[in-house]
Predict the structure of DNA helicase.
Amino acid sequence: FTWGMKLRLAPLAEGGVILSGDFHPGAVAIAKRMRGVYLSAGKAWRVQGTAELVRSNLILELGLAEDQFEILDTLQELLADGSVSPVREVTSISLGGYSPEPTKSEEEVSDSGIYLASVPSIKNTELTNAEIDKALESFSLMDHQPGGIRHLLQRTSALLADDMGLGKTRQAVIAAGTRAQGKPVLVIVLNSLIINWQREILMVFPQAQIALQTFDAQASWIIVNYERLGDFVKHASSFAVMVIDEAHRLKEPTAAWTRHGFDIAAQVQNRYLLTGTPVLNREAELHTLLRLSGHPIGQLPLNEFCERFAG
C-alpha cells in the first residue's frame, strides 16, 4: 500500500539525491535500479539522478501523488563523517521511516553514513552578569543555582550536567522563560516526567499556558516526550528555546528521536541540554551531544574525536 506514504528527496551538491522516508519494497526496487547505495545507519538511499527524475520514476511505478514528496530546496553536501549539511544555509533533514532488511548484495554496497541536520554554532548572548542577577532577584534559589542559570543564559546553547537532586529542572525553566521573552519554549522529556515538568513550570511561572504532547500556538510552553518528536519538526521554527531533559537519550545518532531532535534543533537558536550522565559507557557518546549543542568540538568527524579525546 502507498496511501499515506511520505518520501523526502535531498539534492546533493556533488550530484544525486538522498531518498528517505517510509519504507516500501517498490521504492527499494526503484532505488536499486537507479544504482542507488543503501546507507544503513541513516536509513536512506543515495541515488543517481535529479530529484525530479527520482520522483517521476516513483510516481509512475508506484502511483504516488506529488504531495507525498518533499524536495529540499537547498543543496546538501556530504561531510567527512558521513553527515549531511546544507551548502548555503541551515535547513533540516528528517530521515524517518523503516529500513529494509539488507540482503547480501545490499550489504556489499551499503555505507555507514549518518545523516543529521546541521545545527547553528554556539554564540555568546548579550546578557551580562548584572542583568542576569537582577532578573533572578524574584526567584528562590539554592546557592549554586544562579551559576547554572548564568551558564545557560550567556550562551545560545549549553549543557547543564548537575547531579541528580541539584535542581537542573528549575534552573532550566528559569533560564528558558527568561530567554524566550514570551515566545514558545519546547521541552523534551521522558514520558514519565511530563507532569513533573508541568508542575515545576507552574511553580516558577504560575500564569504559564502549557500544552502537553500537542502543538498549541497559544501556549508559551509545550512539553513532549521523545517518541513524539517527529510530530513537532514542522513547528520547529516557532520555538525560541529548546530544552532537552535527560539529553543522554540522544547519544545514538541512528535513533529516530535523535534525527528528529536534530531536525528541530537546526531551527531553534537557543538549546539547553540537561543530563546528570553525559557519558554512560564511553567518551564517544559525548560527540552527539556536542554536535547537537553546536559546540566546535562536535563538528569534528567522529573518528577524529575518538582519536583525540577517547581513551
